[in-house]
Design a protein that fits this description.
Low-confidence stretches: none
Largest sheet: none
Radius of gyration: 16 Å
Structural class: mainly alpha
Number of helices: 10
Distance between the termini: 46 Å
Order of helices and strands: HHHHHHHHHH
Shape: globular
Number of strands: 0
Helix content: 55-70%
Length: 181
């Protein structure tokens, strides 16, 4: 048990260090680290996930994509399974934005259950932010487009968690309602 807590805290410290100085695009420029923490919290609280490697994958899910961290760095520090989860949910930044978004939709059908759990929790965290604390420069149209795209990605995921999918649907419905009002 203590070794699980230790690994999770190590991932939290690693992600906090890597994302240091990064901010979300919302009006208040929230610390970026709040996002991966929220993704892990959704997995724990809503889906009942207590697999520490999946939770570490959630905490680390944006480090390769958004920092100078490599998958090899993740594997050396946290093991092959965590690195594979992170790899499955990492966008290829060499692609144009539209191609990256389509790749997420297409790739979602092929990721593992663990990767799908992280992907769906990530989309939940993002759509809740888009509804209540959106990027300051996003129009209503842009916010609605994000919700539609997130729904396409999640439709292709197979997280095998009815609770998580139900929470996604509830969050999506609330986000749409909030944006429309």
């Amino acid at each position: 048990m203590m070794e699980n807590i230790s690994l999770f805290l190590k991932a939290l410290h690693f992600a906090a260090d890597k994302h240091r100085g990064q901010r979300r695009k919302d009006e208040s420029a929230s610390p970026y680290i709040n996002h991966p923490i929220y993704v892990a919290q959704i997995l724990s609280d809503i889906a009942g996930i207590d697999d520490v490697e999946v939770l570490c994958g959630a905490i680390l899910h944006d480090t390769v994509e958004d920092t100078e961290t490599s998958l090899n760095d993740i594997e050396l520090a946290f093991g092959l399974r965590v690195a594979r989860i992170v790899e499955e949910v990492t966008d290829d930044k060499s692609l144009a934005k539209g191609a990256r978004k389509q790749a997420q939709i297409d790739h979602a059908t092929h990721i593992s259950r663990e990767g799908a759990l992280v992907k769906v929790a990530d989309k939940i965290a993002n759509i809740r932010d888009v509804a209540s604390n959106p990027p300051s420069d996003w129009s209503t149209k842009r916010r609605k487009e994000y919700l539609d795209w997130a729904e396409e990605v999640v439709t292709n995921c197979k997280p095998e968690s009815p609770e998580l999918l139900s929470y996604f649907e509830d969050s999506l419905g609330s986000a749409r309602k909030g944006i429309d009002s």
